[in-house]
Amino acid sequence: MQPLYSSPMSTSESAPKPHNPRMHQGGKLSFRSRVQDQQDDPGDRLVIGGEDPPTLAELVPAGFADVEIEIGPGKGAFVVAATAQKPDTFLLGIEAATGYASLAATRLRETGRRNGLFLVDNGKLFLADRVDQAALAAVHVYFPDPWPKRRHRGRRFFTDDAPRILARVIRDHGYCLIATDNACYAGQIARVMGHSADFERDERHEQELLARGPGHAFTPTNFERKYVEQGRVIRRYAFRRLPRSDA
Ligand SMILES: C[S@@+](CC[C@H](N)C(=O)[O-])C[C@H]1O[C@@H](n2cnc3c(N)ncnc32)[C@H](O)[C@@H]1O
How does pLDDT run across 28-74, given as a tens digit for each residue? Predict the structure, then answer.
């Protein structure tokens, strides 16, 4: 199956482009886009969103009752593992850095599995304007960029607008699943999500998911592996979407 809306990688790497709010705001992005040292072949497992990305409904093949999104999958370890563990679920990884997305899609293509896809886009904007209400069983956000400088804090994923954006797209009793090694950012996540009337932290489910092993939630990711080796404390959260009222 050839995906709609895909475009060649080379067009995104050439001449300087005007500001695109759908792309990563960081100056390190050009470096990150060159992480791969060999030619990727993402096949049809990569879609370049550009300025007018496709909707979720256009990206997901018919027949999947459960759709989950990972925001910022990096090299794609979690999505690749999850497509194996959850063959009846469709996993969409939305990655702002083209180089990472291409590498991740190449790895997914090599598995031969068709229940996953990577999209180059700004994950928060995609949730806000390309996803139908209650369309998702889960949103995964693992080791989101902490943007430690105070003047960059507005670029974090979990700012005050995040619960409203997540609550619209996650179905009743679905989950937002989060991991971070950054204590300061963890505090912000706990505050922002914990104060939302639409979500409730579910610590029991956090333990259940961890016990299920890789490819269900939280693990594996490249940053997790690196931080575990360094002995860093990792904080993990499962926020359950409370049922919508009928009113
Ligand atoms: C610190 S890395 C973590 C990667 C991966 N989750 C892991 O644990 O190995 C953060 C990733 O999020 C991506 N990212 C940052 N902001 C994003 C956004 N708004 N939408 C999609 N991806 C984003 C970055 O390009 C980067 O690949």
Answer: 443 334 444 568 999 999 999 999 999 999 999 999 999 999 999 99
Alpha-carbon distance of 47 to 31, in angstroms, equals 21
- What is the rounded CA–CA span in Å between residue 239 and residue 247? 23
Domain that holds residue 52: 19-241
Q: How far is the CA of 165 from the centre of ligand 1 (A)?
A: 18
Q: How many domains does the chain have?
A: 1
The values of phi and psi at residue 90, to 5°, are -100, 125
Of 54, 93, 91, residue with least CA distance to 76: 93
Binding pocket residue ranges, ligand 1, CB within 6 Å: 24, 71-74, 94-97, 100, 122-124, 142-145, 221-224
Q: Whose CA is nearest to atom 13 of ligand 1?
A: 72
